[in-house]
Amino acid sequence: MARPLRIEFPGAWYHVTSRGNERKSIFSDDSDRRKFLEIVASSVESYRVQVHAYVLMANHFHLLLMTPQGNLQSFMQRLNTAYTVYFNRRHRRAGHLLQGRYKAILIDVDSHLAEISRYLHLNPVRVKKFSNQEIDFKKKLLFNYPWSSYPGYISLRKRHRFVTYEVILSVVGGKDDARGRRAYREFVLAGIAKDMNITYWKDVRGQVVVGSDEFVNWILEQVLKEQREKAPGEKVHGYFNELFPPVAVEPVAETVGEKFEVEVEELLRKRSKHRQARRFLLALCYDLFRGRESLSEIGAKLGPVSAAALCRNRKILEDELNHDKRLARTYREILNGLRL
Predict the structure, then answer these.
(1) Domain total of the chain
(2) Is 273 a member of any domain?
(3) Can you tell me the distance from the alpha carbon of 283 to that of 263, in angstroms, rounded to the nearest whole number?
(4) pTM for the structure as a whole
(5) Helices 307-323 and 325-339, interaxial angle, to 10°?
(6) Residue 238 CB coordination number (10 Å)
(7) Are 54 and 149 in contact (CB under 8 A)?
């Protein structure tokens, strides 16, 4: 099975989880938990990562992180390695403590930040043994659970220096003051009464991204295009295809056909007599879809034409556009309209 993609860039937000090997406990007592948080704090300092929320459970942990330097892998490698070395030494054991690679979901903060922070903070009362408890019991448990950042969101006295509280509070309550902290408390506790079985996981795409279509497309255009073109092997391509479904050239052909008054079927023919319209179609598909699929895959839907032919066509049209301002304006208008 292919490994999920690792998407890193400066300013990226992640929900990170890591579980014990064979789902076994990774904390034997509170000394282990305190040591883990010490390692988190020192790793935050070393890698300039921001921790916005965390919760430690018996056999796994959750972190809500932002990486100003785009260095999640380095941070997590240091954190997991340092804690495993400590745990094995203290408990006189050897081998893996954590189960495989950590899971990191890239977050669209505009649409999912608050909800994910609530999901994370509700973990202590989501366990099966508390499923039949009254809501008041669960509210009290959340506030008194010592291995979560939630108490620090409610009370200044329960804060940790390595946690950044202001951003999530600003999203939910306006700012980090008494009113904002109260608003966040009400927001989280509403999740108990609402339905704690509802999670954001159903919205995750390709096992690595959660967010709006605009956010996913931004990731494609700004972060993954070069990686997609160089991605080795069909296994990695599979995750790209899950994130970004196969492209359709017909809507592009329809737009070009309307502009040049040419039938779509004629435009999609390899040897169309409408050379300028056909050239536009091939160039637009090149510009719009390069990175989402290989040039060979795109070309197969256009005639077919080879990857080399797509590149030649784009170069010929580019020369024409450089010498014809009206034609260049028309091309930009069509391209921009298709990108909306």
Answers:
(1) 2
(2) yes
(3) 18
(4) 0.71
(5) 130
(6) 14
(7) yes
